[in-house]
Amino acid sequence: MPMILGAALLVYILVAIGIYKFVKQKTDNKWIKRGALAFFILLPTYDIIITNTLGAYYCLTTPSTYVNKKVEYPISIYWEDNVYPGFDKKDRELMVKNYLNDIRLKVMALNAPDGKVYVYQYKDVSQEYYQLAEEYATFSKELQKLRQEFKKATDSYPPNWKETRDKYLSMDKENDVLRNKLSALLNSFELQETIYDDKNAMPQMNYTVTFNEVRLNPFSRKFLYSDETKIIENQTGNTIAYNRSDSPFFYNIAPDFALGNRYYSPWGWEICESQSYLYYNGDGFKYIASYGSAKHAVDLNIKLYNKYIKGKK
Length: 313
Known about the structure:
Layout: H1 2-26, H2 30-42, H3 46-61, E1 66-67, E2 75-81, H4 89-99, E3 105-111, E4 117-123, H5 127-156, H6 161-187, E5 190-196, E6 207-213, E7 224-233, E8 238-248, E9 277-279, E10 287-289, H7 300-309
Parallel strand pairs: 2-3, 2-6
Antiparallel strand pairs: 1-8, 3-4, 4-5, 6-7, 7-8, 9-10
Helix pairs in contact: 1-2, 5-6
């Protein structure tokens, strides 16, 4: 496909040059010649100019990503995802697996495509689990320190770097064993699922995470996709963290041949340097980093492609 695109672009350039030369021969009017030249330059690139212009506008007018309060023990969270919309069965299983650890997060509520809310929590968790979790947390902190030492050692290769490497690799394996043991023990307890007809009927959660598409004006929607995440402290009603993400679509001159079935360009840029992603990694809302938390079985980019391009829900 890239070769076909390159060949098509070459043919376009040759045809454009031929027509432009023909126009120059037929008229001495400089405005007609300049107009013809501008037309052939802008025809395959006009969307790049418009996208970047809109990007500059939204960079100046939209709020930056912020985290006003770091929460390491949210205890209970309600996730309301209105972009997918909601968490289907596979998504809910993924969320429970990744985040519901009965330590930092004990109760998880998720909106579903059927309009209902599913609430999950483990029952009768043993003291053995909490003790193992504490041991794992302590061990992981020690491993993190050693990881930094190992990184420095690989930069300078001091005389003892092999000892540092061997110790790090040994602890890393032991850390995996502890993590798997902890996960297996948690999975041995009963997972309780309670279904509510709507979010007003469920128990009060400490925090709400909302994910919504930002509906730009009809013109901007032809060039950009935008969404926003809010983390709300339910007791106060304050938004303690916020993220707005704007992404460009594929340019006409560089369509989606490499991956296919994508709504916006995964190689696209965040319009503002101040825009990032709120990243919940199971340890609480305290990171702003590249998006990495697995919340849905189907990638957002593919989901939006199916919704807007193919017309599938």
